[in-house]
Amino acid sequence: MPLGNGDTARPRGQRVNAEVSGTPWLRGMGDPPLRGTTAPDGSSTEVTAAGREPGVAQGGEDGIPGGALQRAGQHEEALMSELSELVQKVVKSSSWWERHGVDISILACSFLQLPAGFLFLRSAQAIPFLAGVLTLGVVHHTLTVKGSHLASHNALTESKSWGKVWAIFFIELCSAFTAEQGTYNHVKIHHGYTNIIGLGDSSTWKLPFLNRYVYMFIAPLAVPILTPLVALDLLRNVEWKTALRTLCCMFLGFYCHYWLLLHVSGFQSPWSALLCMLLTRSLLAHPYIHVNIFQHIGLPMFAADRKPKRIHLMSLGVLNLPRNALLDWSFGHSLISCHVEHHLFPSLSDNMCLKIKPIVSQYLKQKKLPYNEDTYSSRLWLFLQRYEELMVHAPPITELVGVQ
Prior knowledge:
mainly alpha; two-stranded parallel ribbon; globular; disordered N terminus; 1% strand; 56% helix
C-alpha cells in the first residue's frame, strides 16, 4: 500500500522509507488460532493473547521443512527478547518522574486549567469566549484520550488497584464509556491482534456507508454523541453491578459539565449549554478519528492463523506520525510519534515511549525490520485518494514470504 504523497501502489509489505522489502512471509510461520481469551461478558474468543507464541508445526503449508520454520520463529523470538532487554535497561535506570510523573503532571495541569476555561466562557467578547472553548476542548481530550489510554494500559501507576480506580475515572467519568469493555477492546483485542482481520484490524473505525468527505470531515463531530450511545449498547455484555456503576459515572460526568456551564460560565438556556458541550467535546474529534485510522489501516493485514511473530507484526502493522505539540499534549506520544514503540511495549507511559524511541528505531533499522513513519498531511491525502479501497472494501490479507 502507498503510504504517502500520492505514491503509486507498492507491493504490500513495503515501507514508507523503503527499508523493508516486498518479499512475502512464509506461510505457516504465523501462530495458529488460539483459544481461551475471556471477554468481559464471560465468553471466549478463538484466539490467544498477544504474548503467547505456541510451537511451530513440523511442516509448512508450502512444503517448507518444519525445522526451517522453527529456526525462523526462534530467531524472531530472539530479536524481540534482545530488544526487550535493551528497553528494560532504560526503564530500570529511569526515575519515577520519567516513568509516571511527567504524564501525571500533564493530566494534573489539565485539571488546573478547567476553572480558567469555564470563566473565559462568561465573557461576551469573542476572543475570551473562544479561548474558553479552546481551553475546555484541549482539556477534555487530554483527559479522555491521553488519560483513558494510559489508564487502560495501567501506565499511570505501579499499583493495579489504583490503576483500576484511574481507569474508571478517566474512561467512565470523563469519557462516558465502560472501563471493562474499553480496556478489553483496546488492550486485549486491538493490541493483542494488531492488524489481524476480524479482530484487531481497526475495522471499528470504518463506516462504509459514508462517503470520504463526510467520514473525514463531518462525521467526527458526532463522536461525543456516538461514544455514550455505543457504551450503553455494550453495557448488555457486563454484569449489572458494572453497568450500574458505569451509568452513574457517565451521568455524573455529563451533569458536572452541564452544571458548570450553567452556574459558572453563565449560560442562560439548557440548549446553549448543551451546544457548548458538543463544541468543546468535538474540538479535536477530527484528528482523533484520523489518528486511529492513519496508523494501521493501509498497512499489511493478516489472518489469525497466518501472521508474523510479535516483533514483525507490530513493526509491519503500525505507523508513527511526526511530533505535534498540540496532539502530543492532548493524545500523548504513544498515540502520535511513538505508536510503534507503544505497540511493542504497551505498558510504558507516553514519556517512556518517547525515551525509548531512539533505541527501538535504531534496533529495528539495524535488523532490517520495518519502522513505518509518515506525515499527517500525507496520510490524509492518501485516505482521500484511496478511501474506497481502504475504508469501504474489506482489506486483502497480506501473504508475506520473508522479511529482509
